[in-house]
Amino acid sequence: MNAKLLIHCASARVQDFIYSFICEESCRMCKRTIYANGQLAETLFPDDDLARPAVVHRWLGERPHYSKVLCECCWERLSSETPLMGFYENYGDRSFPIVSGAPYTGELRDLIHRFKYEGDRLLAPDLAAIMLGSWRLGSIFVDKAPAVLVPIPLHWKKRIERGYNQSELLAQEAARILEIPVAAEALKRKRPTTPQQSLEKLDRFLNVADAFVANGAKLSGKTVVLVDDICTSGATLSECVREVYRSGAANVVALTVARTLLRKGRISGNGRSSLLS
To answer: What is d(CA 133, CA 66) in angstroms, rounded to the nearest whole number?
Structure first.
């Protein structure tokens, strides 16, 4: 372990220690007050309806992460979902795998909405942990040595309006665990598009057609792990995969927090098709 990593770990532990004494949040799911130091809070406030914090045990020997926004009970319920895996067909019947942490339903759907549209960035570590619950499925397609994490980009106007790219925050959290670098500028959205949720499935493919441009110098010969918050029709991911392959990428895997459950079948539009199994 190098000196920089040791300093980072020590700093993180100090931050957690200080936070455990001075900070409180309301659980984003059950709304109960949570303190990072649950036992201390119960001693100081024995009559209050307090919740213990969630402890997310990370991979690869990482220290536990103390969730600032989810209590232990809600986290256990949320993280009990079974990861999903499917394959989408792209141009030339070239399929790519997509792995997701959980179905895009219920409480997880509400959390992603808060994270994406209401500016709740504190949800990023927990949503990334849900996403990485599917990594054992996706890792079989990845050679770690030449791999890069590439977040699905926002158009620059949308990024200024929102203040951040939620997919980039997820990629940054994943990078700390997987030890795979983030190539945030390797894929760009070259024109604004209509929000996908407002469109019918077939129109979504037309909406994002030729909307992205990849940097071949950063992706050529690499295994690209595309990171996004949700997958619904697969139109955005499919278009990004097409552009990434065109830039010279050797392999592509899509990684998302959640995915809409689709019936097995094909969705065709604008010369492409999507198949989820």
So the answer is: 17
Single-letter amino acid code for the residue at 8: H
CA atoms within 13 A on the CB side of 131: 29
- Name the phi and psi angles at 270, rounded to 5: 55, 40
- Alpha carbons 101 and 56: distance in angstroms, whole number: 14
**Per-residue pLDDT tens digits for 153-197:** 999 998 999 999 999 999 999 998 888 999 999 999 998 777 777
Query: Residue by residue, what is the 3-state secondary structure of 229-256?
Result: EEECCCHHHHHHHHHHHHCCCCEEEEEE
CA distance 73 to 11: 28
Total-model pTM? 0.81
> What is 198-214 written as a DSSP string?
GS-HHHHHHHHTT-EEE
